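Encode chain A's predicted structure.
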Amino acid sequence: MLHIGEPHITFESGSALSEIFYDDVNKKIVTVRGDDIVEVKAYGLESNEVASFRLKNKSKIRAIKFSPDKRLICVQYDESIVDFLNCVDLSTNALSTCFSQSTKNRSAHIIGLEWILNSEILFITNQGLELYQVNPEKKSVKLLKSYNISLYWYLYYPYSQLLIVSCGIALLNPFVIQNGSIYRLMKFEVEFGRSNTKPRLLEREVFIISIYNALYIAVLRSGIRDSISSDIALYKMSMNGTEVPKLAHILHLDMVGAFALHGFHNLVVVHHQSSKTSLIFDIGLEEVSKAGCILYPLYKTSLKCTDSLRAKFSHEFKLYSPFWVMFQPNFITDASIGVFTSVSIDPTEAENYIEDKYQYLRFLYNRCIPKSVFLKILRHCVVANKLKLKQLEHVFNWFAKAIAKRFLPTSRHGDSGIKYVLMAEQYEEIAIEQGDIVSNLFLLPDDYTLDQKQRFLQYMLRYLIALRENKLEVQPYFLNEILVPNMITMGQLGRLHQLLLYRIIPDSKQLAFQLLSHEAKYSPLVQLALDMLYRLGTATEEIVEILIARSLVVEAIRFLESLQSTDKVNGLKLIESAWKENRLIRYAVFSHFLERGSKARNCIANSGQFEEFLKKFEVLFDNDEIEAAKRDFYFMNTS
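Encoded structure for chain A:
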């Protein structure tokens, strides 16, 4: 599952080199070779191009790094002086002249150099931090900010311009270097298993990693609980930097010895040298939040070397070599054989280690694998009935929440008064849309048994609920072409009634007319359809047509009167419909239009037809019948 060697580059081994450096900002290995004239080469994994130039050898090079835009190079020969070279000049003059900058405090010793921006560099000294602006055209360096603090060592995370310095036995102090300033964050103390043999926290025991849109300080600890095991404490940093980093997780290793750590793909990968194994931790699994702070490995595996890397060497390529040096997030270099490479992971191979299919799906989803691959595996699990209904409901909620999250307003740091932004590397879930679920899960083959179709109907209903709970608009195709037809076909009319009654299924004209077409199977669908059209507020004529078609012309007129919309419908249509009914209805409807006077004629397109109906109206009842009806009405009201 874990692979090493793709991609990779090779360089001259350590015996032929005078020095080898790692440029963390540009993620390059820089080699230095030679005596009077030294040859410098920079190798990166993203490109086969090798930057190469020569320098006069003043003395032993202590550090060398490129600016982010590769236009400037800083070289440290002296413990308190840094030389700057222009890369443009190097292309024409192999022994280019340079300009220099010494530390602000003459007695300070430079511990490290970090390019913050293309023209900003940070000197980390044993006495504090010094931020400089470099102008290659003028060959000048200007001090922007400084901060006095005694420190032992530091770690730098370029993505957030975050610096962690060790300023005590177990005391760590974060800084953010942004906008030409140095911002000190809340310092914190860690428990690391202090002893006579280890009096203070060491640089190799601390790591900065980015997992699930959050930054963590990982601390490798020995003998905290017993003498036969180690663990890793993960301290989560607040993104505004105003809170002390809090202990979020403890990764239980259950081993002792030499460890190294990588944080990539939202995983914490811990390599153990003596056992030649790697432990995989995923703090994003739902079981983790339930288990509390202590977390055990999801599984254990071993690195495998790619054939392309193995073929570069005539001898055996040793895995978990003691000569390996590891860098974040997933880089490895071995100067003894001249290799710079990375660790990669194939998440789908975790199926061999994770038996629970629900947990396996969550693991894949957290890795942001290609959508098509994830959907194929999901379909296999669903068709084979490998997931419980409640588990699949959770899966649908992952998808719905991820879509809903896209519509949330993004925070604007400029309006919040925060002078800096502490960012983790961005992580976004796989974007599984409604169309993806419908096309991959809900288009049921004709040869499915009734039991299979009923099982998938349960899945459809759970997906509908997930969409509604996350306030997402349900696509008409899923409702009108998939869900409702399947419910009707399988005789789930009572359940459909409940879903419509409680508005779980949203209103639409298309759905309303579909319900009407199944009136013969379940008569209450008519009223549900009418209620739906009424709520939409844009279907007045359609409602009138439905009522007329069902010989409910009086109800149609009452409906129009309630909306004060009688004038908007052709009155002739109502009169013609009434004339298909008994004399009482004819009389009542036509009387209604006569009482409205001239408006009646205006809402009837052909006034000649109105006159014809008027003649018919006048002979509906004779005078005796009318007088008798009036007397009955009078006595009914006075009795």
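The longest strand covers residues 2-10.
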